[in-house]
Specification:
Blueprint: H1 18-24, H2 29-35, E1 47-48, E2 55-64, H3 70-76, E3 83-89, E4 96-98, H4 100-108, E5 113-120, H5 123-129, E6 133-138, E7 150-151, E8 155-157, E9 160-162, E10 167-171, E11 174-178, H6 183-205, H7 210-213, H8 217-223
Parallel strand pairs: 2-3, 3-5, 4-5, 5-6
Antiparallel strand pairs: 1-6, 2-7, 2-10, 8-9, 10-11
Helix pairs in contact: 1-6, 2-6
Length: 229
């Protein structure tokens, strides 16, 4: 039995603050994940379908049925500029739910990319379009259009809870979800973390050791580390 409500399209969703989304777009997934307290990360099987893909935007969520991409077409109508489609499936499925035609449609509506816990195809075309897609699998196998899912309901995508309007950031390191209500706070924390890392990077580049920069020598000695000449 699905824990989801099926056959629903929520039209009016509250998207995260635009300025907060813009600020989050300046930082990498690892930095944001750390700044948020190490939560919100999708499972690491989610991979970019081409090198260099990265995206940051507000989630329009889709719940798919296995081997059926009908709801992707329903979702297209709900897209606005700056959105990222986040698609989950009612059960594990790696069929090719999405390709270059849907990417063309999504882009025409203002979508910035797709995160899907399923399969996609037409990878060469997606790369040429520079339409960022992060997926569970690449699969040429097509889908049908027969069973209702839902659009803009809370979903669990690759282990992460995603509510419509949340901020989704994806890059070569993975995919992270920032709840809409926390977007500004997390963006500010990410900025502070980045500034701190810039300072550390300069020290490390100058030859300072992490052993000294992080004051590790004393705890290492306490733990029993011995140097033998």
């Amino acid at each position: 039995m699905s824990m989801y409500q099926l056959g629903i399209v929520k039209r009016n969703i509250v998207r995260a603050d635009r300025a907060a989304v813009e600020k989050l777009s300046r930082f990498g997934v690892a930095t944001i994940h750390e700044a948020m307290g190490r939560v919100g990360l999708m499972k690491n099987y989610m991979k970019p379908v081409y090198t260099g893909a990265h995206v940051c935007g507000t989630a329009v969520t889709v719940l798919l049925q296995p081997g059926d991409n009908w709801m992707m077409h329903v979702a297209a109508e709900q897209l606005q500029a700056g959105d990222v489609v986040v698609a989950a499936c009612t059960s594990d499925n790696e069929d090719g739910f999405f390709g270059d035609l849907l990417a063309t449609s999504f882009r025409a509506r203002g979508a910035l990319g797709l995160i899907i816990d399923g399969g996609v195809r037409d990878v060469k075309d997606l790369a040429e379009m520079d339409f960022p897609v992060f997926s569970r699998a690449i699969n040429a196998k097509g889908t049908i259009k027969a069973t209702l899912g839902s659009v803009n309901i809370p979903v669990v995508c690759a282990g992460a809870v995603v509510n419509p309007g949340d901020v989704v950031i994806a890059d070569a390191d993975g995919v992270v979800v920032v709840p809409a209500a926390m977007a500004q706070k997390v963006a500010d924390a990410a900025e502070a973390r980045e500034a701190n890392e810039t300072e550390k990077r300069a020290k490390l580049a100058a030859g300072v050791l992490g052993l000294d920069m992080y004051n590790m020598r004393e705890p290492l000695a306490k733990a029993g580390l011995k140097y033998i000449d």
